[in-house]
Amino acid sequence: MEIHLKITGILLICLALIHIFFPKYFKWNKELKSLSLINKQMMTTHTFFIALTIFLMGLFCLTSSNEIINTKLGNTIALGLGVFWVFRLLFQLFIYSPSLWKGKKFETIIHIIFSIFWVYFSYTFLIIFFNK
Fold first, then answer.
1. Are residues 86 and 130 in the same domain?
2. Which of 72, 74, 76, 88 is deepest in the core (most CB within 10 A)?
3. How many secondary structure helices (H) and strands (E) does the chain include?
4. What is the mean pLDDT of residues 4-31?
């Protein structure tokens, strides 16, 4: 499982770094113009902290994979991370509107890729917890 944690760590760090391009890709200068200042700042601030948290999760997986697998604390953290990614998968499948990706080739590919990521992350963390 250690190799899966390392792969997960690399993927999470890449995912965190992708957030750098969100404002430009999603045209936040234009799209967020009509929002109040507090809502604009909450959007950018929360995006930053989500990216930072995902980056730190990735770093944690890369640097502490042995401890995550072989300690009670690591197993408990793995359970928490597994639950986190299960909820992210559920949101991907049931909260985001299919109209955001259905019939759109690029968006459908992204939807499928990230659904696979969420399944892989969920599986990796939960299998560590349940195999203690």
1. yes
2. 74
3. 7, 0
4. 96
3-state helix, strand, coil in the chain (%, to 5): 85, 0, 15
User: What digits encode the pLDDT tens for the residues 109-118?
Assistant: 999 999 999 9
Copy the structure tokens of residue 75. Answer: 């197993």
Matching residue, tokens 């499928």? 112
- pTM value? 0.92
How far apart, in whole angstroms, are the C-alpha atoms of residue 69 and residue 46? Answer: 30
Q: Are 11 and 119 in contact (CB under 8 A)?
A: no
Domain that holds residue 22: 1-70
Number of domains in the chain: 2
User: What percent of the chain lies above the pLDDT cut of 70?
Assistant: 100
Long-range contacts, stretch 42-49, CB < 8 angstroms, 24+ apart: 47/19, 47/22, 47/23, 48/19
Note the maximum CA span of the chain: 51
